[in-house]
Structures are given as structure tokens and as C-alpha cells.
Design goal:
It is built from no helices and ten strands. By secondary structure, the protein is an all-beta fold.
Length: about 120
């Protein structure tokens, strides 16, 4: 079974930056994705990256501000978040998928890690 451990969240002021990490074990050759769930909101897709890192996509609201990357030697995916806004406040989760494009509906995934909290103050 895949195990997912997210880290790197914190409290930042608007305009600041954070870098999230997600260590994944128990899988091989998976695409990886980030999701987030804000206060009183449904969980939503944020970004995804293929196994080779050659295909990437983002939700429109983070394009130009967030960058997803991965290090397959460490089985880790990253999310560099710049120019953060209060509306980016959420618990951020990662997940893996066998295919690319990844499934963007969170309900298609059976397992989640504990997530990491990102809070952006205005």
C-alpha cells in the first residue's frame, strides 16, 4: 500500500513562499499530484506531474505562482508556492496515480496522508 507523508506547511504572510514536500513509499513509476482543502471547502486538485517529470499541469488559480517538481531517487514530490494569497490557505495533500493525466476528482482516491497545513495571513 502506498504511504504518503506531507510536510513543509506553515504560517506565512500574503506574498510569501513555502515549499511543500511529499515522501511516497510503496509505489513505483507513479504520476503524483497535489490537492488541497480549504476551510469549509471541498478538496480540490492543484497540480500534477508525470513519472518522468515531462508533463505537468496546474489548476488555473495557481498557474504562474506554484511549481511542482519531483525527485524520483527520493520518491518525493515538491510544491514550491510563491506569491501566496489568503485564499491559498488549506490543508495540502499529495497522492499518486498510475496514469497521466491524473484523476483530478479527489473522490477517485481511496487513501490519503495526513496533509500539511498552509495558512496565509493578509
Amino acid at each position: 500500500q502506498v504511504q504518503l507523508v506531507e510536510s513543509g506547511g506553515g504560517l506565512v504572510h500574503a506574498g510569501g513562499s513555502l515549499r511543500l514536500s511529499c515522501a511516497a513509499s510503496g509505489h513505483n513509476s507513479y504520476s503524483m499530484a497535489w490537492f488541497r482543502q480549504g476551510p469549509r471547502k471541498v478538496r480540490e486538485f492543484v497540480a500534477a506531474i508525470s513519472w518522468a517529470g515531462t508533463r505537468i499541469n496546474y489548476v488555473d488559480s495557481v498557474k504562474g505562482r506554484f511549481t511542482i517538481s519531483r525527485d524520483n531517487a527520493k520518491n518525493t514530490v515538491y510544491l514550491q508556492m510563491n506569491s501566496l494569497k489568503p485564499e491559498d490557505t488549506a490543508v495540502y495533500y499529495c497522492n499518486v496515480d498510475l496514469m497521466y493525466p491524473v484523476r483530478t476528482d479527489p473522490q477517485d482516491y481511496d487513501y490519503w496522508g495526513q496533509g500539511t497545513q498552509v495558512t496565509v495571513s493578509s
